[in-house]
């Protein structure tokens, strides 16, 4: 077995074609999103294997992730990359002073994903197969066409294009200051697409408890797959009350950056669809702990964003759920996901099945090589 010989971290800013706005922008809390910031980790072993991992942030945080990764990353050199649990713990202890959530966890996520990619490549298996897969494809819905800055005609047109391209469901952003506008847009999309198309909505945390309940009751008849982040991401009790009060399932969890935060959501039955995010929660290692507990509680898991990693994890979860199609990170990689009949195919290449695109260097802001000298 080859020990870790070198580790390369990179920091990238990947521009979006057009800035997008969700409810956090409509309510004045954030500016439109114009780029995704990415931390990459490439681990090379003495016997010549390579693992690729990445983490991301929106608007702020990647310089801090990069700094933390560089600082604790020295601890990887000489380690056996197959001992992921032990290596992860070593990194946690190296950075124990800054905790097990937020930026610190997200820096470790890039490393952890690279370790899992490497392990699956060593086994000659796609990551889903290494973990133990239940299926070769996962239901997929599109989010990127349903943002609030887009006029309703554009939302309808993009939804149609997505469905024609094999996507199985459509998510529409809601949570505008005037709820009647949300209801109008949603009714227009439902009418345009017809009854049979799975439809989700996402309020990005912009309602109080009373507004969320009012919205939920107003849309019960639309048969939505879920209502996402109706409340503040940390309001576990509020989500639990809403989930109990409504027939429409509740989805949340994307903002939580610790196992403890997500476990609290599970314990309170605050979501019907839990939405952990591998880079945000600290990597695949902590994600798997959350997924095991979610399954034990009979919950659905529909991971947030980063389809490139999550298609493997959704395939390895007992209950058939959904992955989110957002193509924002695609320019970084040579490969594109295969989509057909409403589902995303799990790549049959070893590991994550991803390689950094040659032109990714155009968006690189910073890079460092540890070891390998
Ligand atoms: Mg969301």
From TrEMBL:
Protein's UniProt keywords contain ATP-binding: no
**InterPro entries in the cross-refs:** Enolase-like_C_sf (IPR036849), Enolase-like_N (IPR029017), Enolase_C-like (IPR029065), Mandel_Rmase/mucon_lact_enz_CS (IPR018110), Mandelate_racemase_C (IPR013342), Mandelate_racemase_N_dom (IPR013341), RHMD-like (IPR046945)
Could you confirm whether the keyword Transcription appears in this record?
no
Pfam families attached here?
A: MR_MLE_C, MR_MLE_N
User: Keywords assigned by UniProt?
Assistant: Magnesium, Metal-binding
Biological processes annotated in GO: amino acid catabolic process; carbohydrate catabolic process
Q: Whose protein is this, by species?
A: Nonomuraea fuscirosea
Cofactor(s) essential for the protein? Mg(2+)
Residue ranges the record marks as coiled coil: none
Q: Which residues form the Mandelate racemase/muconate lactonizing enzyme C-terminal domain?
A: 152-249
**Protein's name according to its UniProt entry:** L-alanine-DL-glutamate epimerase-like enolase superfamily enzyme
GO MF annotation, one: magnesium ion binding
